[in-house]
Each structure stands twice: as C-alpha cells, then as structure tokens.
User: Which sequence fits this backbone?
C-alpha cells in the first residue's frame, strides 16, 4: 500500500526493455523444472573468453590493480583501442577521444542522453536493438524509426534515412552488421548517406559497430569512422563483448567527437566512475594478443549460419534470407499466420526452443523471429527440428 505514495519520475514509465533477458530467465526456469530447452534466444557467443585474456585480468588483480582508474579508462587501453582502429579500419584516432565504458550499451545510453530531450527527434533502426527506442523514449525525444526491409537484405537505405531528417533531428543511430537481422549495409549506401549528410551539419550519428568483425562471404566492414567529412559528429560504439566472447565482463568503448568527449566523460563520472580495472587489462590483452580465437569463432558462426538458413528454409511457411554478419538469422514467419509473440511463447513453452519475437525489436519486426545461432550445430539442428514439428502440429490443430 505504501508503494502508492511513491511518485517515480514520469520518464520511468517510458523506459522499455530487452526481452531477450526475460526469455533467458524463463528458459532457465523451465530448465530448472526439468524441461529440455535449446537456447537460440540470447545474443552472446557460446565460446569461452580466450585464456590469455582471462590471465591478463587475473594478473592485473594480483599486481594490485584494485582501485579506480581514470574515468575514460587507463591510457594503455585507450592507446590499444586507437592502434586497433588504425590496424582494422585505417583511421587515426586520438586516444583521448576513446571512452571505455561498462559494455557497449552504455555508449548508446550516453549518446541518447547527450541529444535527447522533448522536441528533439532521434532516428533508429526498426527492427533494431530494442534499447535504442527505449532510451530515446526515456530521454523525452521522439523516436523516429528507420524501417529495415527484408527485400533490402535488412540494410538501411541512405535515401530513406535522409528523407526522414527534419529540423528537429539531432541524432541518427545506425547499426551494421545488425541485430536482430544480421543485415549488412554495403559501403555504397554508406557513401550515399555521408554525401547527403553534408546538407545537415547539425545532425550527429551514433554508429553501433559492435558486430563489425563478424562478417561473412568476404564482406568488408564500412565504418562511419572512415569518413573524415563527418568525423566531428560521429560517435562510434564498439566493444569486446561479441568479438572476444566477453559479454559478462561488461567492457565496451566509444570514440567521441572532440566537442562531446568532455560531456561523455562527465556522464561516466556521474554514472559509474570507471570500468573495473582488471577488465581493462583484459581488454588490452584482447586487442594486442593473438586474434586466432576471434577468427575461429567467426568461422564457426559462418558454418552454423549456413545450417540455420538451409534448415529454416526447409520448413513450410518459413523463409530466411542469408544474414551477412553478426550471429542472428531473421526468418520470415508471416506465411504461417502465427503472430511473432505467440510463436515465441509456443516454441519456448511447448517445443523447448528459446527464440525472440521480431516484435521485440520494434513494430516492423512483426512476421519475423530472431534466431541466435550462437549454439552448436547439433543443438541448432535439433532446435530447428523442434520448430518444424511444432509448426506442423499447429497447422493440424
Ligand atoms: N549493440 C548491439 C547491436 C547489440 O546487439 C548489443 C548486445 O546484444 C550491444 C550493442 C550491447 O553490447 P554490450 O553487451 O557490450 O553492452
């Protein structure tokens, strides 16, 4: 009863969630109750963090790195990030503009807080990572969806993005390779977008490139950081979670424009002070150490991707385009006539397969299901068999 006297801020009522965590909790509860559940829900590599990275964190603790670090991260980490970006993307980055944060998510929160307020518009991909829309709404800004379409391979269209810019647009969020679709936007489209942005100098871009090293069939990663003409307004979101199987370490980074780094650093000081010190040492080891384990993971995901696409396409009523990156497939289930959320629930509760409804990623996700193929080929095959059997039963019901 006393709860009724509490008056949380109105903004709390506008904050959304990431239902992958709810599905994970439900899957764990079902497993604990003795049910077999194959998890194709949560988006995290099923591999262990490579040993040399773990050892670097243990050594850091043994060496007495127990305290606060500078808010943006220790200098060696920021330098290692700059060197990695030079190697991978051929860009020069001032390590002073690198802000280490507890996970990639923190950068999107900060970027949206930096620009979001009532009257502002922020564009975001839809279907897209659910936290974008959630945080935009929380900030008071108006979320403006960029619809991502299957016929476009779920890449964004430059023309579409540019057409949605209004005098109120403050920030555009982009994500390639993308969650939940695996879509990859080709460089030609990014070129067109950057050319068009010249007409909108007051619009910032947050480019979520957390899957930038998970590309297939020889695709090349087009980073927004590679365009000097917009460097003064690009926020790069990246991190270690996916590339190095480090989701639980909570380690990510951003490269901020010079004009914004002080505000971003103050947000960090107000929010979390700094990333835990041993994770930062692990991050250095990840970037400077051998990359073979990271490459092996991508090769494993690629093999699974082929199995997922082939097996899903063999199910009547289901069709799946080939994802070009990340570790997600986004099959079209509209021909089954079953709404996405209903299918998510039925598959989890009855078939024992955790997936995520496309609608968890925005209204343009209806008619789709997200399958994370961060699981073994045997489990993927077994899960897709279960999906096929469940759908056949539904059809006969
Ligand atoms: N961006 C995208 C597109 C993601 O899919 C995720 C995680 O699923 C993140 C950012 C967040 O990464 P982190 O776990 O490092 O916060």
Assistant:
């Amino acid at each position: 009863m006393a709860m009724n006297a509490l008056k949380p801020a109105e903004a709390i009522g506008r904050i959304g969630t990431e239902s992958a965590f709810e599905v994970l909790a439900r899957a764990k509860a079902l497993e604990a109750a003795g049910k077999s559940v194959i998890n194709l829900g949560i988006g995290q590599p099923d591999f262990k963090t490579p040993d040399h990275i773990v050892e670097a964190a243990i050594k850091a603790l043994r060496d007495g790195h127990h305290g606060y670090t500078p808010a943006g991260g220790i200098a060696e980490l920021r330098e290692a990030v700059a060197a990695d970006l030079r190697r991978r993307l051929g860009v020069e980055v001032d390590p002073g503009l690198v802000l280490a944060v507890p996970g990639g998510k923190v950068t999107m929160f900060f970027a949206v807080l930096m620009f979001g307020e009532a009257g502002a518009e922020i564009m975001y991909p839809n279907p897209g990572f659910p936290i974008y829309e959630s945080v935009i709404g929380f900030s008071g800004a108006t979320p403006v969806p960029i619809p991502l379409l299957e016929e476009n391979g779920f890449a964004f269209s430059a023309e579409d993005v540019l057409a949605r810019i209004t005098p109120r647009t403050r920030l555009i969020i982009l994500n390639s390779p993308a969650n939940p679709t695996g879509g990859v936007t080709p460089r030609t489209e990014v070129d067109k977008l950057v050319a068009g942005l010249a007409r909108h100098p007051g619009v910032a871009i947050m480019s979520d490139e957390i899957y930038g090293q998970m590309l297939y069939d020889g695709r090349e990663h087009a980073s927004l950081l590679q365009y000097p003409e917009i460097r003064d307004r690009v926020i790069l979101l990246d991190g270690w979670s996916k590339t190095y199987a480090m989701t639980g370490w909570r380690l990510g980074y951003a490269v901020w424009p010079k004009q914004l780094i002080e505000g971003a650093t103050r947000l960090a000081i107000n929010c979390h002070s700094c990333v835990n010190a041993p994770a930062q040492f692990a991050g250095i080891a990840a970037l400077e150490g051998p990359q073979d384990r990271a490459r092996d993971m991508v090769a494993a995901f690629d093999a699974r991707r082929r199995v997922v696409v082939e097996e899903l396409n063999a199910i009547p009523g289901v069709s799946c385009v080939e994802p070009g990156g990340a570790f997600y497939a986004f099959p079209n289930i509209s021909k089954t006539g079953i709404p996405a959320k209903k299918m998510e629930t039925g598959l989890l509760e009855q078939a024992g397969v955790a997936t995520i409804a496309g609608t968890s990623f925005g209204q343009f996700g209806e008619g789709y299901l997200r399958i994370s193929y961060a699981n073994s080929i045997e489990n993927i095959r077994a899960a897709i068999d279960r999906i096929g059997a469940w759908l056949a039963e539904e059809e006969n019901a």
User: Anything to note?
Assistant: The chain has a mean pLDDT of 96. Residues 43, 103-105, 129, 175, 179, 208, 210, 239, 241, 247, 252 surround pyridoxal-5'-phosphate (CB under 6 Å). The first helix runs from residue 19 to 32. The chain has twelve helices and twelve strands.
